[in-house]
Amino acid sequence: MFEANLLIGGDDVRACDGATFERRNPLGGAIATRAAAATVADAGAAADAAGAAFPGWAATGPKDRRAKLTAAADLIEKRAADFVAMMMDELGATRAYALFNVRQGVDTLREAAAMTTQVCGEVIPSDVPGRLAMTVRRPAGVVLGIAPWNAPLILGLRAVAMPLACGNTTVLKSSELSPGTHRLIGDAFRDAGLPPGTINVVSNAPADGPAVVEALIAHPAVRRVNFTGSTRIGRIIGEKAARHLKPALLELGGKAPLVVLEDADLDAAVAATAFGAYINQGQICMSTELAVVDDSVADAYVAKLAHKAASLPAGDPSCGDVVLGAMIDREAAQRVAALVDDAVGKGAVVAAGGTVEGPVMAATVLDRVTADMRIFHEESFGPVVSVVRAAGPDEAVRFANSGEYGLAAAVFGRDVGQALAVAMRIESGICHVNGATVHAEPQVPFGGVKASGYGRFGGKAGIEAFTELRWLSIATEAARFPF
User: Fold this and answer.
1) Cα separation, 457 vs 155, whole angstroms
2) How far apart are CA 333 and CA 350, in angstroms?
């Protein structure tokens, strides 16, 4: 069992009232982490510490910031075994997925470190003689990052890496389901030599989450908010941030469509579908949930995908090499099973999987899904591909755009020009031609549209999100005024 205290001002501290909460392994039920349950006062102390550290960190040169962030990335890489064990204990994740988190998380942090010298402005021509006009980007202040459990290292680091690179200080509000993993992130930054208060980690019991988050958003030192999680909670975060006139970057739910055109390479499309749908049991915002397939190739595609799904072992990752581990809890598996049952009751066909044992659900293919079924519209967040048959590209685009979400998508077709034309018509922040819906790189702008949120992480878009753009001018000649 891991003991996760709060990290405030560089110190390990308990909650001010001594309260704790437990995160249990979803498979065996053993206590994985006992974490400090922060109060509103603890949240305020973390924001105070970040505010006190801000002037010094903002004044630190880009070379020194880059060196410390790179050192933190090196430490995380060296401690990969600790992070993997923690994710397997807290989440029931497979070893392969936990290692993927380490690799992608380290890449995210190293990319942020490389961006410290890219926080740039520009010179703008002025109409006033003898005046030099320019813009500069300055750190915003304290950035609150609220990270989810489903990719705890990748998304925990994403919540703080670019803000730190830009000269901000941070408070990482950890997930109640992965408090140990998120606390290990704080340890790595502290041990890499970041000054006390530069990064603070706050954990809270589930019942206390709304009050803790509201206190952090309202704190005067907090200038930016970023949240990755469900659309339902994202709406609440966005409303609270707006009430305090604080910009929020929201990366929310998704129901990624993968469109298979009549000329698609079916083997490639099936491989991408299986990866996108079943990695981490479908518990990824980019997970392939809808396969929108041209009628002419749908039978062959379903047969191939069902064969692939049936070959993927599911079970307890601690007992053997499996592709699918546990969902986050038994209730999540039952919720997805209920969506499947609703669809079958309305005419859908289970082509593979569909079975649930505790928190483990087999890789599932659901064929002949239609718009009157809940699973057509609702985010399942589980290992289910819903196959929707379409009569040509126009209907495929209509199906792909019919839901409220717009994060990731993919299109498969040998005629790349036609596939790209279809991709351009899909309403999503991200779309890959002949690639899986689950794909991210730290240097590209990442985010969605519609109910999948707004704002972008990554690259120069991340710099824009976590800095203030200021206009400065210098008069090189005596100015003339009308009076």
Assistant:
1) 10
2) 16
Strands (E), 314-383: 349-352, 356-357, 360-361, 364-367
pLDDT score recorded for residue 218: 98
Q: What is the pLDDT of residues 407-423, one digit of tens each?
A: 999 999 999 999 999 99
Asked if 287 and 439 count as a contact pair (C-beta separation under 8 A), the reply is no
- Residue 170 neighbours by CB under 8 Å, 6+ apart: 50, 142, 143, 144, 145, 159, 160, 163, 164, 198, 199, 200
| Structure-block tokens of residue 129 | 């003689």
Distance CA 48, CA 403 (A): 42
Question: Nearest-CA neighbor of 5 among 30, 39, 37?
Answer: 37
Q: Report the relative pairing of strands 256-260 and 288-294 from DSSP bridges.
A: parallel
165 in Cβ contact with 112 (< 8 Å): yes
Burial 401-435 (b: 16+ CB within 10 A, else e): ebbebbbbbbbbbeeeebbeebbebbbbbbbbbbb
- Pairing, β 131-139 against β 122-124: antiparallel
Residue the block writes with tokens 């209730």: 331
* Cα–Cα distance, 346 to 333 (Å, whole number): 20
60: CB partners within 8 A, 6+ apart: 167
**Alpha-carbon gap, residue 264 to 242, rounded angstroms:** 45
Task: Cite the active site residues.
Answer: 251, 285
Q: What is the pLDDT of residues 352-407, one digit of tens each?
A: 999 999 999 999 999 999 999 999 999 999 999 999 999 999 999 999 999 999 99
Find the largest Cα–Cα distance for the chain: 84
CA distance 52 to 246: 19
Q: What is the pLDDT of residues 316-358, one digit of tens each?
A: 999 989 999 999 999 999 999 999 999 999 999 999 999 999 9
| Cα–Cα distance, 163 to 376 (Å, whole number) | 37
Alpha helices in 34-147 (DSSP H): 40-59, 62-78, 80-91, 95-114
CA-CA-CA-CA dihedral for 318, 324, 327, 330, to nearest 10: -80
Q: Phi and psi of 110, rounded to 5°?
A: -70, -35
